[in-house]
What does this fold into?
Amino acid sequence: SHLVLVAIVREFHDGLQSAAPLALVLSHTDGFSSILSTPLNSSKMVFETTGKYQLVNGDDDNFDKIMQAVGVAEDKRQRSRTLKPIMEFSHDGDQYKVTGSAEGIAERTKEFVLDVEQEDVTIDGRKVKSTYKRDGKVMVQTEIQENGMVVVYHREIKGDEMHVKVTCGNLVANRLYKKL
It folds into this structure.
């Protein structure tokens, strides 16, 4: 007979819980039992973003200051205050895709692989270099502007919401998206 039980557990040492979960495999085959525990690599956790999210709260004042710092023109910053953009995320293996759209603006799609810097053009025509990384269930996008400024987007899914923290130097804007 053959019996295999697989469980994901957290390891305890001296009453303290380890941050890394373990895969615990119990196997019983022909009278022999074995236990195998293997740490699960948290970097393999999938960023749960398949779906569409629309901006519902944009922290407009702080986000405007960030856009100004990176060189977005006043007329484009003013227009952005009225938009409620939609972001759609998907991935196939290591290939990720994010499509952005907003009323009156052409849809834009970015495809990327984690940890690979790539050149990109922003919606207002600025050239940037972007790198996407995954930190557990948080997707971190680092965008280096032509003027040397660095903008970092931390995207985290919590239930049917996507919380986005945007930082540029000491400027911080928090943006909230709801799943459609």
Observations:
- Residues 30 and 145 are 63 Å apart (CA to CA).
- Residues 2-40 form one domain.
- The first helix runs from residue 60 to 69.
